Amino acid sequence: MRRSGNRVVVIGVVAIVAILALAAVFLFLTLPDGNAFNARVERIFIENDALTGEGEIKLLEILALSGTAFSETLVSYRMVMFVLLIFATALLVASLVFLVMLVALNRRMAQIERAGIQVASLHISREEKTVYLNDMAFRLTDAAIETLSILAEARLDDDVLSGAEIEAMISGRRPEDCEEAAGATRIKRLRDALGNQLVSELLIKNIARRGYVLAIDKGTIRVE
Question: What's the predicted TM-score (pTM) here?
Answer without folding.
Answer: 0.48
